[in-house]
Amino acid sequence: MHFSGLRVIREALTGHKGWKPLWRNPEPQPAYDYIIVGGGGHGLATAYYLAKTFGRARIAVLEKSWLGSGNIGRNTTIIRSNYLLPGNEPFYEFSMKLWEGLEQEFNFNAMVSQRGILNLCHTDAQRDAFRRRGNAMLLAGADAELLDREQVRAMAPFLNFDNARFPIKGGLLQRRAGTARHDGVAWGYARGADMRGVDLIQNCEVTGFRIDGGRISGVETTRGYIAAGTVGVAVAGSSSRVMAMAGMRLPIESHVLQAFVSEGLKPTIPGVITFGAGHFYVSQSDKGGLVFGGDIDGYNSYAQRGNLPVIEDVAEGGMALMPMIGRARLLRVWGGIMDMSMDGSPIIDRTPVEGLYLNAGWCYGGFKATPASGYAFAHLLATGRPHETASAYRLDRFTRGYVIDEKGVGAQPNLH
Amino acid sequence: MLIPHPLLGLRDAQEFTYLGDAVLLNRPDGMAEGAEAAFAEYVYLRDNPAGVHRELWFHEQGDRSWLVVTRDTTTHEILGAELARDVKLKGGAA
Ligand SMILES: Cc1cc2nc3c(=O)[nH]c(=O)nc-3n(C[C@H](O)[C@H](O)[C@H](O)COP(=O)(O)OP(=O)(O)OC[C@H]3O[C@@H](n4cnc5c(N)ncnc54)[C@H](O)[C@@H]3O)c2cc1C
C-alpha cells in the first residue's frame, strides 16, 4: 500500500474502506538469520535498514510489549545535531541528513519539522563554549549560527531577558534541527520493515540467550525458543537487565526522565528553545500543546514515573525563562526509563559473545539518533564492521580510556 | 521520597544528592595485582538491578553524612537506611 496525496483523496471519496493495517501480526518462526531484540525506534530502524539497505532476509524483531511502547513513544521528539566531540558530531549529523530524507525514504508521514533549536547562553564563558561547539558542528558539515541578544529577542520576544541570575546574552541556533512525530517514526520503520518481509513479533519477551561455546545460537522467549545466528539487542532502558542474561555487566545505570505537555494553545513557540542553565526546554507540538522537560530525576529507576521535586524544578525553570507559561494548564506528565551511560554517549558494538551485538546507552538523546543508530547497527550486524560514523561507540572504550564525555563530568551517569 | 535517616528520622530526599550503587564503598587496592582491571570495573561497571538496590546518598543539605539506602528501583519504595560509615566498618557493601 503506497501512501500519496492521490490515495488520500481516493479514500476520502470511497468512505475510507481501502486502508489496511500497516503490518502483519505473524507467529514466530523456529529460526531466523537475524533477531533484533526490542521493538522501539532503534530496533525497528535496524530491521528496516538491514532488509532494505543491506538486503538481508529472515529477520525478526521481538518486542515484549506492543511496538513503540517504550521511549520511542515517550520522548519530547527533538531532533538535532549540535554536539561538540568528534566521536559524536559526525554520527548525529549523519542522522540529521537521514531525517531530512526520511519521509520520502519510507513513504510515511513522520511529521519531520525543521523548526530550529535555540540553546540560550548567559555568560561570556558560555558564549565562547557555544562558539566552539558551533565551529565543531560546521566542521562536521552541520549548520550553526551564533546569535546575539537582539537576534534572540527578534525570534522569541516573550523570553525573560533580564533574569537576575541568568540574563540572556545570546544563543546557538541550528536551523535544520526541529521535531518529528515520535510514533510516526516507529510506525514508518515498522511498516517499511514488514513490507520487506521482516517479522514483527509483539508480546514476545526475550527471557534468556542460548550460548554454545562462546557463540550465540538463539534466544529464549515467552513464546518459546527461537534460533538465530546473529542477535542484536536494542532495548533502551532495559539494556542492563537483558545483557545480564548473557552474563554481562554494562557501564550503564537506568534513570527516569519526565516530560510534560500543556493544553493546546495558539502558535507561540517558534522552534525548540533550551535553557540548560535552568534545567528547562520547550517546544510546541502541531496540536498546540507546549511540550517541555528538564533534568532526569537522578536516582536509579525502572519505575517509568518520576517524583514531584523534579516537576517543581522544571516548572520553576519554565517560569524563570518565560513567565507567560504560568498561565498554561498542564495536561499530562509522564516518565520513561533510559540507560544513562558512564560518559553520556551510546554504545553500538559487538560483545564478547560471538554473534551477539549491543545497541545501548542512549541517555535522554536517542530519539534524534534513531535513523543513524538503526543504519549503523544494521551495518554492524550485516558486515561485522562498525559504520564509519559510529566507530567511536565501542563497548571497551571505558577501559581503554577513550570515553566520549560531552559534559566533562566523568563516570557519574546522573550528571550527564 | 522520604529517607529514614538513622540519626535524624524521616528526611525529604531533596536534602540529599545521589551518587550510585553502594559497591562504590568497596574501593579496590591500587597496589594489588590486576589493579587496573579492578579499577576499570569499579569506576564503570554496574549491576543496575530492577528491584532492590543498595545505594549511596549524601545528606548535603543536612548533617552531611553518607547513607547506604536500600530502595526498590521498580517502585521507589525505600526499605531502609544505614550510615555508610557503619556499613563500611562492617566490611563493605556486598
Ligand atoms: C521523557 C523523555 C524525553 C525524551 N526526549 C528526547 C528528545 O527530545 N530527543 C531525543 O533525541 N531523545 C529523547 N529521549 C530519549 C529517547 O526517547 C530514547 O533514547 C530512545 O527512544 C531509545 O531508543 P528506542 O526508541 O529504541 O527505545 P524504546 O522505544 O524504549 O525501545 C526499547 C524496546 O525494547 C523492549 N524490550 C525491553 N526488554 C525487552 C525484552 N527482554 N524482550 C523484548 N523486548 C524488550 C521495550 O519494551 C521497548 O519497546 C527522551 C526520553 C524520555 C524518556
Automatic annotation (TrEMBL), chain A:
Pfam family, one: DAO
Transferase recorded as keyword: no
GO BP terms in the entry: tetrahydrofolate metabolic process
InterPro entries, sorted: FAD-dep_OxRdtase, FAD/NAD-bd_sf, SoxB
Entries under PANTHER family matching the protein: FAD-DEPENDENT OXIDOREDUCTASE DOMAIN-CONTAINING PROTEIN 1 (PTHR13847:SF287), SARCOSINE DEHYDROGENASE-RELATED (PTHR13847)
Keyword line: Cytoplasm, Nucleotide-binding, Oxidoreductase, Plasmid
Localization: Cytoplasm
Any one annotated GO CC term: cytoplasm
Source organism (scientific name): Paracoccus denitrificans (strain Pd 1222)
Alphabetized GO MF terms: nucleotide binding; sarcosine oxidase activity
SUPFAM superfamilies in the cross-refs: FAD-linked reductases, C-terminal domain, FAD/NAD(P)-binding domain
Residues annotated as domain FAD dependent oxidoreductase: 33-380
Protein name, entry field: Sarcosine oxidase, beta subunit family
